[in-house]
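Q: Sequence in, structure out?
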Amino acid sequence: MADEIISQEYLQTIFDYKDGQLYRKIKVNNQPPSFVGSKEKKGYLCVSINGKRYKVHRIIWFLQHNFWPKQIDHINGIKNDNRIENLREASSSQNNQNSKIRKDNISGVKGVSWHKHKQRWLAKIDVDKKRIQLGYFKSLKSAKSAITKARNKYHKEFANHS
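A: Exactly. Output:
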């Protein structure tokens, strides 16, 4: 991973971390030290260091923990909330478990969709890269209850019921 080339000591010479924000210590283009990070297309804050783009939350993590994790999860799902207490190391699967409801979801319940042929609500959940069907339900309320219980059981602290 290219991130590993930069040392914690080097980052400490150019940045300060305070309350979820990264501040530049040195002047750039005659500008005084200031908050850094520009929002990218997916909503994460990024900064350039020596011509390479880095996500701000990864730099903050590295400054605090002195290692680059494969993935970092924003606990509250807000991609530019980079307070260290809102960041946690996660696997790809765990990061997906904490995702928000899809924009194309018509049920309003994550993991629940309408099955036209059976005329029932279908609840399903992904666990260890496998899809588990929890069943077909007459009511959306029953499907929601089943998916919530399953998420709590399998996803634990990464469960996101949005």
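The chain is about 25% helix and 30% strand.
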